[in-house]
Amino acid sequence: MSRPVYRNDAKTELEYTDETKQSLYSMLTYGIEHAGRQAIAVQYFDNRITYGELYDQVSACAAGLLARGVKKGDYITIFLPNIPQCIIAVYAVNRIGAICNMVHPLSTLAEIRHAVDLTESKLIFTFELNEGFASGMDIDIIRCRTPGYFPKNPKGFVMKTVYSYSVRKSAKAAARVSEWSDLLLEGQKNLNTKPLPPCDVKADDTAVIMYTGGTTGPAKGVMISNWSVNYVTTRLLLENVTRTAHIGDGFLAILPLFHAFGLAVCIQAPLSSGMRVMLAPRFNDKECSNLLLKEKVAYVIGVPAMYERMYPYLKGHDLSFMKHVVCGGDWVSHDLAYRYNDILGKDKGGAEFRPGYGLTEACGTCSLTKNQYHAFPEGCVGIPVEGTDICLVKPGTCDLVPEGEEGELCISSPSLMKGYYKNPEATSDVLKLHADGRIWLHTGDIFLIGEEGNLCFRSRIKRLVKVNGYNVYPPLIEAAIEGCPIVAKACAVGFKWRDDRRIKLYVTLKQKMDPAEAEKQILAYANDHLNHWSVPKAVVILDEMPMTKMNKLDYMNLENKE
After folding, report:
1. What pLDDT, on the 0 to 100 scale, is given for residue 107?
2. What pTM was estimated for this model as a whole?
3. Label partner for 131 (CA 20 to 30 A): which of 121, 140, 176, 207?
4. What is the dihedral angle through the alpha carbons of 106, 153, 322, 381, rounded to the nearest 10 degrees?
5. Domain termination site, one of 430, 459, 488
6. Which residues of the chain have pLDDT under 50?
């Protein structure tokens, strides 16, 4: 049932304790106590779920799982998009000490089976369109239906019609399927006679497994503890939100929950501070922009491609209601930052577009810009968040590089993963003991430490191209070329040229034009704006750039063409 937004004009006062930060679930209960049961926790289309209802449904789901034999330490695969059941399931699984095995809902059959087999999952949460992927598996399936959450208007009717048609055409799973609603009814019935046992979850216990890699073999399962998630959550909240947030403020959750940053910052952060999660089941530029404007969403976190696509819909509107706008996950160009800072009204006291940096192995975030972005060089991603130490080493070693030189970024932080699940070899490749006696994460990214300790991203080590012995960084080339008036998007890759390597440039254009003329203009621009070794030897015009499931530039796709 649709409800108005409850808003408390008192600013958020956040005082997290060691007990609060014990588990994902304990942070949720803090948010419930802080906001009150009547405040809106989750908004999905026209449906609003209060903090009290969220708590009750999490409890019922947890009791239902216990009734089905799930116990502490079991792995539960969550194969869902950003829907309310996904949030409820994550907290319910965590409540009983089981571990969430988070899988991208667009995964292939091989990928989902790899994740289930790797963890020996006891149960799968999925939705109707995906349940066929579990066919042939010896595993219980909980079917989550979504039409009940669709809008109660003509648009919602169309969505239900299309969804129902898609369900009829989709493959069905084997017989071991039960409904989400039945699970909650079963759990609630048990709660009427037997309360849940005390929550026995420790901060160091693994909370979730997230997947990364997969381009050179099966994806690696990253083990992330409760403390890792809560550390990221509380640090960002205490450093950036405490002074500005109000109970009921909207937080647009367009990053997926199966992504570390999405879970820690788009879900855990707002729900543990009394804010309102505006849940988007998928990213749609127009719909997300309209939702942001209609609901006057205060907090948004996304990747560059999302902001690029939303910009035409946001330009010209008053965005003074926005408080924090964070961008990470991929290279952030100066042009994108300038355009957003212009429409956000930062010079009038509005929000500022803030690039950051992180990776799944560090629970999604390591650094965030603090000051005026226009003062930073290309590739700047700010300074480390509090409690996170960084250093630069010679790639492939633990040897520190001299001050002022580039090197592989290494991170020491409470947010670091526990390791790759059942993969000690891969773990030892990235988690290494340094001379200071600490374990450091080797990120595989080349950085320079600039003025005031700001981190400046150069390239993935795997993307580095050696041209006549010189280091050439594709992201810097792409940033420069995207300044060309006719270029919309650029991707630079290395290719074999005679006995050496050179740069091939793939581009999309802002408008249709003769390819030969476009190439001529682009090469002329490159010669004026790049050093000799970075100038491409070839230019390929594409209709559109290949993108990953995470809305990042799929450079591997283009590299594999070489």
Report:
1. 84
2. 0.87
3. 207
4. 10
5. 459
6. 1-11, 214-215
